[in-house]
Write a structure and sequence with these properties.
By secondary structure, the chain is α/β, with parallel strands linked by helices. The protein is 44% helix and 15% strand. Strands 2-8-7-6-5-3-4 form a seven-stranded mixed beta sheet, with helices on both faces. Strands 9-10-15-12 form a four-stranded antiparallel beta sheet. Strand 13 and strand 14 form a beta hairpin. It binds pyridoxal-5'-phosphate (PLP). Pyridoxal-5'-phosphate (PLP) binds next to helix 3.
Length: 400
C-alpha cells in the first residue's frame, strides 16, 4: 500500500501528538466533573480554566470572553442566533447582514432566523470571491442587530478583509447611533492568520478545533464583554450561563494546546504551505490544458488550491485520485446528470461547468515535496480519463 497523500486539510486535520498527550489524563483517571466540589472535580475545573487562559492568550482577549463549545457549527449557531435573539428581545431590531459565500453553518442559521421574522441581507462577492467593505456598510440599517462575515473561505481559501469590513460597519453604526456586533467565522483561519480579536475588530469569533489539529467535537466561541447574547443551550450554569452542559474536559484541554501551537507556528506554516501550494498550481497548469484557479491569487490561505478542470466531473476525479492514494475534495456534490453546484463558486460568477469540475487541494505542515510529486504524476491521466467519461455522459442540468 502506498502512503496516503492527504490534501484535504480544510476538511479536517490529524490530532497533534502534543494535544493528544495533554488530553489523555482527562480520558483516564482525571475523569472528574469540573463542577464537583471535591479534589477530582477541582482538578478537572483547573484544567478547563487553564485551557481558557491559553485560548484567551491566543485570541488576545479576556478568559471570561472564551466559551467552549462542541465545534465550529455550534459556535456559529450560538453566535448568530444568540445575538439576534437577544437583540430582538431588547427590541433593537430584526435585520442581519452576512455574505453570499459563508459556510452553511452561517447561511442556514440565517435562514432559521428568517423563518422567525428576521430579514437577512446576503452581500454578494466579486469574481475573485472578495466582499466589499463598503457594500457591507451600505447594507446596515437602523434595524440591523448583527453582521457576520467569514475570515477565510473553506472552499476557495479567499481571505476577507475582515478588519476593514468591521471598521466600515463600526463607522456606519456610529453614523446611525447604534452598536452593531460583528461576528466572524474564523474556522479556516487558525493555522495561518492572526486571530487577535482587537486587530480583527470583531465582537464574536468562531473556531473549530479539528481544523487546527485539535480534537473533533470541540470548538471555541469568543464573545466580547457586553455583547448581547442569549444562551442557545440551557441547563446548568456552565460557561457563565452561555453554554450549559458538563464540559468536554479532554476536548477543551486539547483545543488549547493545538490552538497555541497553531498560532505560534503560523508564519512557518504559511511559508511551507505557500511554496508547495504554488508548486502544485504551477505544475498542474503546466501539465494539463484548460485549468483555472478559483479565487483571489493573493488574498487566499497559503494552503489552498481550488482548481477547475473544465470538462471533467470533480467527483470522478476525487475517485480516480483516491485509487492512487491521494485524498482531496470536490467543490460540488453532483450526479452524472443532476448537479448541486457550490454556492460559493456560483456566487463568484462561475459557470455550472466550472463549479462541477472544481477540486480543492488543502495542504499542511506535513505535506512534502514528494506528496506534490505524487499528485503531479497522477493528475494528468486522471483528468484525461474523467474528461473522456464526461464526454460520453452528456450535458449537466442544475438540481432543482
Ligand atoms: N465554517 C467553516 C468556514 C468551515 O470550513 C467549517 C467546516 O468545514 C465550519 C464552519 C463548521 O465546522 P465543524 O464542521 O467543525 O462544526
Amino acid at each position: 500500500m502506498k502512503r496516503l497523500v492527504y490534501l484535504d486539510n480544510a476538511a479536517t486535520t490529524p490530532l497533534h501528538p502534543d494535544a493528544l498527550q495533554a488530553m489523555l489524563p482527562y480520558l483516564g483517571d482525571r475523569f472528574g466533573n469540573p463542577s464537583a466540589a471535591y479534589r477530582l472535580g477541582a482538578e478537572a475545573g483547573k484544567a478547563v480554566e487553564g485551557a481558557r487562559k491559553k485560548v484567551a492568550q491566543a485570541l488576545h482577549c479576556r478568559p471570561t470572553e472564551v466559551v467552549f463549545t462542541s465545534g465550529g457549527t455550534e459556535s456559529i449557531n450560538a453566535a448568530i442566533k444568540g445575538v439576534a435573539e437577544a437583540q430582538r428581545l431588547a427590541r433593537v431590531g430584526n435585520h442581519v447582514v452576512t455574505s453570499a459565500v459563508e459556510h452553511h453553518a452561517v447561511l442556514h442559521s440565517c435562514q432559521y432566523l428568517e423563518r422567525f421574522g428576521f430579514e437577512v441581507t446576503y452581500v454578494p462577492v466579486d469574481r475573485q470571491g472578495l466582499v466589499d467593505p463598503d457594500a457591507v456598510a451600505r447594507a446596515v440599517n437602523e434595524r440591523t442587530v448583527l453582521v457576520s462575515v467569514m475570515t477565510a473561505n473553506n472552499e476557495v481559501g479567499v481571505i476577507q478583509p475582515v478588519a476593514e469590513i468591521a471598521a466600515a460597519v463600526r463607522e456606519r453604526a456610529r453614523q446611525i447611533r447604534r452598536r452593531i456586533p460583528f461576528h466572524t467565522d474564523a474556522v479556516q483561519a487558525a493555522n495561518a492568520l492572526d486571530l487577535s480579536v482587537d486587530a480583527l475588530g470583531v465582537d464574536l469569533l468562531s473556531l473549530s478545533s479539528h481544523k487546527f489539529r485539535g480534537p473533533k467535537g470541540s470548538g471555541v466561541l469568543y464573545i466580547r464583554r457586553g455583547v448581547p447574547f442569549l444562551s442557545q443551550i440551557d441547563g446548568g450554569g456552565q460557561e457563565r450561563q452561555r453554554r450549559a452542559g458538563t464540559e468536554n474536559v479532554a476536548g477543551i484541554v486539547g483545543t488549547a494546546v493545538a490552538l497555541d501551537l497553531a498560532q505560534r507556528s503560523r508564519e512557518a506554516y504559511a511559508r511551507h504551505c505557500r511554496r508547495l501550494r504554488d508548486r502544485l498550481i504551477d505544475g498542474v497548469m503546466a501539465a494539463t490544458p484548460g485549468i483555472e484557479l478559483n479565487g483571489h491569487t493573493e488574498a487566499r490561505l497559503p494552503n489552498n488550491a481550488s482548481l477547475a478542470f473544465e470538462g471533467a466531473d470533480a467527483r470522478e476525479l476525487v475517485r480516480l485520485l483516491d485509487e492512487e492514494g491521494i485524498a482531496c475534495s470536490a467543490g460540488a456534490a453532483c450526479g452524472t446528470q443532476v448537479v448541486e453546484p457550490s454556492h460559493v463558486l456560483m456566487a463568484m460568477g462561475a459557470t455550472l461547468e466550472r463549479a462541477v469540475s472544481t477540486l480543492r487541494f488543502s495542504l499542511s505542515m506535513e505535506t512534502s515535496d514528494e506528496d506534490i510529486d505524487r499528485l503531479l504524476a497522477a493528475l494528468p491521466g486522471a483528468v484525461e480519463r474523467a474528461r473522456r467519461e464526461r464526454e460520453t455522459a452528456g450535458t449537466l442540468t442544475p438540481a432543482g
